[in-house]
Specification:
This protein has about 120 residues and is of the alpha+beta class. About 30% of the residues lie in helices and about 15% in strands. It is built from five helices and five strands.
Amino acid sequence: AGWRGLAAGVLARAVQSLGVPADQLLAWIGPAIGPAAFEVGDDVVRAFTSVHPEAQPAFVPNARGRWQADLFALARQELGRLRVTDVYGGNRCTVSEPESFFSYRRDGQTGRMATLIWLD
């Protein structure tokens, strides 16, 4: 979903639309730009911390006066607020793993990945 989708509540809408109690869900956080590669400005920090001040640790200041953002941590926080506790993944960086993933940010070309959702 990227940072905009995450900030806009895409996880909450997805969980609610499944119609399953959160404690019966398993979430897997797929590959994304990792915190070492994802530099953001104050606007992105504000988009999260103005609503959820506890999101601040997901943003680390860097030497350029900007922030390194941890989308994986932000997604885990949101899933926790939604009471989804069975969460996996969230450790594969699309930018730093060119042998495994495409990255427009790294290569200037798009590619395709798929996400699956199923109910048992």
